[in-house]
Amino acid sequence: MLSSESGIEVPFPVFEGGFTPWDGPDPDFSSIFDQSSKTLISDSSPAGSNSGSDPVVDERKRRRMISNRESARRSRMRKQKHLENLRAQVNRLRVENRELKNRLRFTSHHCHLVQTENHQLQSEELHLRRKLSDYDRILLLQQLQQFSTAWPCNIVTSVNNEQIPPLII
User: Fold this and answer.
1) How far apart are CA 131 and CA 18, in angstroms?
2) Which residues of the chain have pLDDT under 70?
3) Could you give the CA distance from residue 45 to residue 58 in angstroms, rounded to a whole number?
4) Which of 74, 117, 154, 161 is 20 to 30 A off residue 9, Cα-Cα?
5) Are 10 and 19 contacting, i.e. CB atoms less than 8 angstroms apart?
6) 21 class by beta-carbon count within 10 Å (0-12 exposed, 13-18 middle, 19+ buried)
7) Using alpha carbons only, what angle is made at residue 155 by residues 150 and 161, rounded to the nearest 5 degrees?
8) Do the Cβ atoms of 166 and 153 come closer than 8 Å?
9) Which of the 8 DSSP states describes residue 2?
10) How far apart are CA 167 and CA 36, in angstroms?
11) Residues 69, 41: contact at Cβ < 8 Å?
12) In what helix (H) or strand (E) does residue 3 lie, and over which residues does it extend?
């Protein structure tokens, strides 16, 4: 298994010699590929073909076959590398999605706590406003009582032990 740059393990083997399937073969291996393709070409000639066919045409066919094989190999390697990149991207996106979900849960929980605290504070504010209003009324009544007893028209005078109410002018 390989680990890519992002730290995610990629399920592709590393072959002997240290190269991966998408790496090109070492120069030492090129001779093996050339020899095997030559033997395959010579072995795969049709049974009904002329043994005396044109060597230039045979050489072109052989080169084309080798070129096609190399092109197919490169295409498979590109496809494999593309698949690896897509898998790594899927893994990165899954991790990012999980992190975003966790952040959303945390933020939602925090928002719920703030809303609960806000509701409690609003209730407390209402209770304190009512209490303050009650204290204002009590103070106002006390001031009115003190003020009303200090007025001269509220003083009661007695004549012959009779109380005469104050005159209201």
Assistant:
1) 82
2) 1-52, 150-169
3) 10
4) 74
5) no
6) middle
7) 155
8) yes
9) E
10) 136
11) no
12) strand 2-3
Gap between the Cα atoms of 109 and 153, Å rounded: 68
Nearest one of 93, 99, 84, 78 to 9, comparing CA atoms: 84
Q: Give CA–CA dist 30/74, Å, rounded.
A: 14
Residue 106, pLDDT score: 97
Share of the chain above pLDDT 90, in %: 50
| Residue in the structure block whose two tokens are 């706590």 | 113
The confidence score (pLDDT) of residue 149 equals 75
Whole-angstrom Cα distance, residue 169 to residue 167? 6
Question: Distance between CA 26 and CA 119 in Å, rounded?
Answer: 72
d(CA 99, CA 92): 11
Please state, rounded to an integer, the average pLDDT across all residues of the chain: 77
Structural contact between residues 21 and 77, judged by C-beta atoms closer than 8 angstroms: yes
